[in-house]
Amino acid sequence: MAEVVETQFDSDQFLKLLTEALRAGPGSPEWHEAVNQLKNSSLADADEYRMLINAREHLESGRDYRSIRAGPGFTRRVISAIEDEAAAQAPSPPSAGLIALLAAAGIIAVIVIVTIIWYRGSPVQPNSTELPNIVFAQTTVATDFTQTQEIPLQWRTFGIAPVISSRGRGLAAPLVKAASSDDKDYHGGGIYSASGMAPNQTFAFEATIRQYHVSENVLVQIFITDQPDFDKNAKAASPHELVCYLLKGTINIAKPDGSIQGTVKAKDTNHIQIKLDKQFVLIENEGQTLYSGPHDLSDSKARYAGLRFLVKPSDKPLEDVTVASVRILKP
């Protein structure tokens, strides 16, 4: 290997000397030195170099230089020398292994960043957009109070039980006598489903409420509760319930924490539907959205659908607002 390198080095040195000799011309010290080395040289391209010397002499003597041509070996060496010099000056391109390593490092960095964002960022919250698209086609409980004379066994009563209207208006508020002259508070009672719905069960509770007169003496509440333990006090509320109620000609939504979510004007006939899944609720009246969002009920307790009347003491039955029918449906 060392002998090959030395020969190449000597050849390069001779090419340099030959170039200087050609530049200096015949008779110059460089010329004589190049001619002497060429005479004693055993290089493979010596004949081509001698042709150059002869060409230079012919030029000096005025002869036709175009008749003298370099052999193919000379052209090869010149091109090879140029390429070697360019390769020595240009920076080496990155190897395939280095490129692959950098690409792998980039992919790992992206995975790490995505993982950090996934675990440290806000958790993805489910939404209630599925409820409007669910078709509740299976009826589990249905009662038309305008066609019955008593409350069916699918419903349990609590507080002061409501009554069936003698005028065919459906379920109406009970008649409450004043306990004293200053008794003007609301007294409550109603019905709720005898069977609860599992917390992961999607279902709908419908009620058709009719308003005959705008009054503050009687109001109707439809609700979903996860604690069907009704107070012994006058209003007979449960500890944790979602309520939609009609009072003084308006419909309101109250969440389990007591916050009011909206107020809209009631119609003469109001078909209210509460669609519920494990986390969200959609409350509509005749297709108009009243509230959509989290219901904040327990995700581990059964849910019970019901309705409640709150009525002030009176000497005659109050049927300003009644419930014509109720239904519980599943998809």
Which architecture of the largest domain would the CATH scheme give at its second level? Answer: Sandwich
Q: Roughly what percent helix?
A: 25-40%
Quickly give the structural class: alpha+beta
Sheet with the most strands? 7 strands, antiparallel
Order of adjacent strands in the largest pleated sheet: 2-5-14-7-8-9-10
Name the average pLDDT. 81
In total, the number of domains comes to 2
Predict the CATH topology of the largest domain: Jelly Rolls
| CATH level-1 class of the largest domain | Mainly Beta
Strand content: 25-35%
- Shape category: rod-shaped
Distance between the termini: 87 Å
Find the count of extended strands (DSSP E, 2+ residues).
15
How many helices does DSSP assign?
Answer: 5
Describe the structure in your own words:
With 331 residues, this protein is α+β, with helices and mostly antiparallel strands. The chain folds into two domains: 88 residues, no CATH class; 200 residues, Jelly Rolls, CATH 2.60.120.200. Helix content is 28%, strand content 29%. It has a seven-stranded antiparallel β-sheet with strand order 2-5-14-7-8-9-10, with no helix packed on it. Strands 1-15-6-11-12-13 form a six-stranded antiparallel β-sheet, with no helix packed on it. Helix 1 packs across helix 2. It is rod-shaped, with a radius of gyration of 51 Å.
Write the layout of secondary structure elements.
Blueprint: H1 2-24, H2 29-39, H3 46-61, H4 72-89, H5 96-120, E1 138-144, E2 155-159, E3 163-164, E4 171-172, E5 187-193, E6 203-211, E7 218-225, E8 241-247, E9 250-254, E10 260-265, E11 269-276, E12 280-285, E13 288-294, E14 304-311, E15 321-330
Antiparallel strand pairs: 1-15, 2-5, 3-4, 5-14, 6-11, 6-15, 7-8, 7-14, 8-9, 9-10, 11-12, 12-13
Helix pairs in contact: 1-2
